[in-house]
Amino acid sequence: MICHTQPAAGAFEYADHLGGSTGILVNHYRGQNAQRNSGDSTRPCGMRAASPASPRASRPLARFEPDPRGEERQLGTQGYCMGGPIAFRTAAAVPDRVGGVASFHGGGLVTDMPNSPHLQAAKTKAQFLIAIAANDDTRSPNEKTVLKETFAKVNLPAEIEVYAGAAHGWCPPDSQVYNEPQAEKAWSRLLALYGKALA
Length: 199
Hints:
Elements: E1 2-6, E2 11-15, E3 25-28, H1 32-38, E4 47-50, E5 75-80, H2 83-93, E6 98-104, E7 127-133, H3 134-139, H4 143-153, E8 158-163, H5 180-197
Parallel strand pairs: 5-6, 6-7, 7-8
Antiparallel strand pairs: 1-2, 3-4
């Protein structure tokens, strides 16, 4: 496990390997070179949250306890690419603990399966940020509409936006399609989400 503070965001990262089949796991997404070249140790790597919808998903939350005030803190979970649907399922697995969920260029958020990640929204109490790559939207133009309708139906706050000119994978600085202006926008929207949802 790796845990270090992110003073600029007033938070910390929790990292663990993704080999297990259950648990709320957050893993560094960005490469070491990108972190070293970023020049700002307070900026986190992209984080990927992993958990199937399982009762055991709450087990790693014990790592964040006890709160000195005796309170259970609200947590945020975010995913990049295939981490997006996993972040959705994490929130569904522990709805009383996860207050904010973010997906960046998420893949497979909407499927025709009964356990589709977008249907997990009905099981959460979280606020959502869904940042969609422009080329993903071109391939699946109806997905954003389905997401908006799903969140509206269960009356959950959700910011859903297609990031113009941003290709799938635009957030990590070591990505070949890194788009700095849109990555900075996504980061600022994430801080705004957590500022509201985890307050």
